[in-house]
Amino acid sequence: MSGTGPPGPVMDRDEVDRALARLDAEHEAIETSLLALQDHAGRRLLEGAALTGVTEERWAATEQRITLLWAYFDAYAGALNAAREVRARRRWPSREDLVELTELLRGESVTVAGGSGAGPDPSSTGPARLSERFTLQELVSRMNDLYARSLDMVVAADAVWSALPARIDLLAAELARTRHLAHSVGVRPGEHPAGDDLERITSALTALREQVISDPLAFWQRAEGSSAPGGGRAHTDRYDREARALEEVRREIEAVLTVRQDAEARLGRLRDVLSRADRTLAEARSARGEVLAKIAASEVPAVSGPSTALQEQLAMASDYRRHAQWHRLSPLLESLEEKAEDELLRARESLTAVTAPLAVRAELRGRLDAYKAKVARLGHAEDPLLIERYDAARRMLWSAPCDLRVAEQAVLRYQQAVTEVLAPRVPQQGGTADRRGDA
């Protein structure tokens, strides 16, 4: 006991009994918490793991806190037992008993050897000393602080171990399936970028899992503003980055697999498109000869031959298919399909440009015959002027070579004559106006 007397007023019997009951309850609660911490799965993992980095450093400090925590608890239990013994001396404690109990229950009656000097920062307050003296209430507060900090570290490590390794293992299983699929379609490291990516992801996941196991706290992110034990989560930036990379590779491999499944059909469609382009160009070349023979004074564009480069690439694609080089075939087919459609469009445009003069001649012929039919329907088929102008336009349109500019003018003169013939005659004073001019 302290030689300076009890701290404050001496407690009476009821106050002593109430204090002992409260301290007994606190003792039981603290003991339960310490045993739970001792049996915590995260603490057992930390004791058995080969730790590195920040986890190794923090676990060393936490182990010292836990050791000190048990020392505090033993001292607390000893002081509480001493107080019980004094109270158990007699039913009605004497004045000396109450003074001693007041000193035990309220004074700095507990001495802990080693104290906060047991290791680096094992407690939250005070400089390092060889021993410390506490009141029971101060000791409870100190134990609560040490317990919360120790539990926080254990829970954080356990949370990371519970979350990340299992996710990494699932991703590694998906990686193994993707590697098998890649091998089946000929995607290998050094031969295809996707194969190199798979090698990199494999190495990254292996290193990530090793670090998670040895240094889980390197992946712990405390929730903002949280002071509760374990108030945070495992941050998964590196894991998420590799998961996205694997998903991109998987889609690329599946695209290659799709190529393997429908390569022959796509090659057949390519051959058909290029064949149609070649036939269209051949038709354009033939039409150009016809235009040059039948149409005079007309500029006819030249027609190129079939694309030998596309035919060579098509032969290369067929060779890739024969040798199961799907990773090379995939991009080549995509490129060829686009180029083949462009080639067919170019051939059609060439045919349209070459046959444009024939289309103009056909339109003029159609227009001339349409007007003739109209004239006949209205009873003017025997009109000499119309017959003359019709015959002139027809000779030009059905002669070879046909001069389209001259023929168009002839058709326009025939149209004008038809318009005048069909226009109603307007009576004029002094006679009847001639209904048409001299042809």
> Radius of gyration from the CA trace?
51 Å
The helix/strand class is mainly alpha
- Note the overall shape: rod-shaped
Assembly of the depicted chains? single chain
How many DSSP E strands?
8
Number of helices: 12
Q: What is the helical fraction, as a range of percent?
A: over 70%
**Count of all domains:** 4
Mean pLDDT: 84
Q: Give the strand order of the largest sheet, numbering strands 1, 2, ... along the chain.
A: 1-2
Low-confidence stretches: 122-128, 431-439
Give the H and E element order.
HHHHEEHHEEHEHHHHEHEE
Biggest beta sheet attributes: 2 strands, antiparallel
Report the sheet-strand fraction. Answer: 5-15%
The CA-CA distance between the termini, in Å, is 146 Å
In terms of topology, how is this protein built?
Layout: H1 13-38, H2 41-48, H3 53-87, H4 95-106, E1 110-113, E2 131-134, H5 136-184, H6 193-214, E3 220-222, E4 232-234, H7 237-294, E5 295-296, H8 308-322, H9 326-354, H10 356-377, H11 384-397, E6 402-403, H12 404-422, E7 427-428, E8 431-432
Parallel strand pairs: 5-6
Antiparallel strand pairs: 1-2, 3-4, 7-8
Helix pairs in contact: 1-3, 1-4, 1-5, 2-5, 3-4, 3-5, 5-6, 5-7, 6-7, 7-8, 7-9, 8-9, 10-11, 10-12, 11-12
